[in-house]
Amino acid sequence: MLAEVRKLTTVRAPWMLLAAALALVAVGAGSRLAKHPEDAAGAAAHAGLAALFPLVLGIMAMAGEYRHRTIADTYLSTPRRRRVLLEKLMVYTLLGIGFGVAGGAVALVLVLARSGSPVPYSTLAGAIGWNAAFAAIGVGLGALIRNQVAAIAGALAWLALIEGVAAELVGDDAARWLPFRAATALGGMPAGGLSQGTAALVLAGYVVAFTGAALALQQRDLP
Question: Transmembrane segments in this chain: where (predicted)?
């Protein structure tokens, strides 16, 4: 686990993505408050959108090992493959929480400065959970799709396009159970269609599903 922490703190990518995430939250929350100063919850919900970046980092955590051909050395130093995956899952889930807290802090500062409405703490808590869940899903996805570029492109395509198309095909009642819709509900966005508690359980189910599939795959021989 310490090795994973050292990787995160000694390379530039996490810091660059954190900066991009905070900029996204600041722009989104600030724009919302400029148009609707009373909508503190809507502004705070933008902290959840930072989850895009922990998702990418989670994918890179596993798929990057295959891209840089370091996976064999990783498994030689830690032969228990499940332990490798679970340690990455733990570290990157904590990273996701960190992204959520940082994004929530930016949104909170803007809300306090520009809105007279009560602070939406439940929305901020949901945004933190959204970031944590997407980081964990990213680790599982990176273990399943070992090509880093394909995994990241597929994840972004799902969020930007595919889930929207799927929602049109299956209807809103079914679409609310899809991962991005559930995440938006957890983060306090009304378009999600689920209560925060239900959305949290749905996202937890996706985390368990991706992790379980990745653990099963990790028992196979290296390609």
Answer: 44-63, 89-113, 119-142, 149-170, 198-217
